[in-house]
From TrEMBL:
Gene3D superfamilies: von Willebrand factor, type A domain
Any coiled-coil regions, as ranges: none
Name of the protein in question: DUF58 domain-containing protein
Superkingdom of the organism of origin: Bacteria
Domain DUF58: 42-251
Source organism of this protein record: Hymenobacter koreensis
């Protein structure tokens, strides 16, 4: 249950992923279902249309009743990890941990959990130069590939144009898509932004979609010295902090947070807000225990 600063200092993403996953003690989805398989689980009465090859003929001969043998079969899905790698994710909290660094820890833990459930997992980083992809796979080398991509990733520029995001919108089968972003371009004031359009279309492409809204506590509380100069990390615009306006800032921030959450949920997506000062394993446990199938 190490905090983000301590985990980042370990400088070993494979170890960190295992620590976070073990601490979270949860999975993305139920790991088994009833069906045709190898390991026997239970009998159920025959129903018209059932495959006769699955009938237990010996039991039928003894009891004059018809039962099918059912087995446990592993479910398989694709976990797609989408990371907003625009420059605003470089924002540092009071402990010196950036949103990007915190997202890296979370996604490494999620990748570990998905992979060890036998699911295919892939990584998609979205930044101004395009879409950086580690295609989904369940093979033994996938985790090192994802860890390497996360380590090498930097947050730069603005969110990519809509046309770049087309590969994310292809129809897909059983899947869960996890988006990590500070959602600055989502809400009623940005209905046509590339990120808003992506979120709107992800649900239509199929599968569950979980949006993790990542914030730093100091931007939430505006906890800076009175002489601080604030800078927009994507535009470079600067603004002298006026401490007398903290109450106004809080009012407007709370309104923006409500509207952003309503917008995401209105798309039919699951929404969860996280802060970078939360212990990653505890934060991930809350996320994975959430009602992914009840986004509204």
């Amino acid at each position: 249950m190490l905090d983000a600063a301590a985990l980042h200092a370990l400088n070993d993403l494979s170890l960190v992923a295992r620590l976070i996953a073990d601490g979270a003690q949860a999975g993305l989805h139920p790991s088994r279902r009833r069906g045709e398989g190898i390991e026997f689980s239970q009998y159920r009465p025959y129903q018209p249309g059932d495959d006769l090859r699955r009938l237990d003929w010996r039991l039928a001969a003894r009891s004059d009743r018809y039962y099918l043998r059912e087995s446990d079969v592993d479910t398989r899905l694709t976990a797609r990890l989408l990371l907003d790698a625009s420059a605003s994710m470089n924002h540092l909290d009071a402990a010196g941990v950036s949103k990007l660094q915190y997202a890296r820890l979370l996604l490494a833990g999620l990748a570990y959990i998905a992979h060890h459930q036998g699911d295919a997992v892939g990584l998609y980083a979205l930044h101004h130069s395009g879409l950086q992809t580690v295609p989904p796979s369940a093979d033994a080398g996938q985790l090192p590939r994802i860890y390497h991509a996360l380590r090498q990733l930097s947050a730069t520029g603005t969110f990519p144009a809509t046309a770049v995001l087309a590969p994310l919108l292809a129809r897909r089968g059983a899947s869960v898509t996890i988006v990590v972003s500070d959602l600055y371009d989502v809400g009623p004031e940005h209905p046509s932004s590339p990120l808003a359009q992506l979120l709107r279309q992800l649900r239509a492409a199929g599968g569950e979609v979980l949006v993790l809204h990542l914030l730093a506590r100091n931007e939430y509380d505006l906890d800076y010295p009175a002489s601080a100069m604030l800078e927009d990390l994507e535009t470079g615009q600067r603004l002298q902090l006026d401490v007398t306006q903290r109450a106004t800032y809080q009012t407007q921030l709370q309104q923006w947070l409500r509207e952003t959450e309503q917008t995401v949920r209105g798309y039919g997506l699951y929404y969860h807000r996280l802060f970078t000062d939360e212990v990653p394993a505890q934060a991930l446990r809350q996320v994975l225990r959430g009602q992914l199938r009840s986004p509204v």
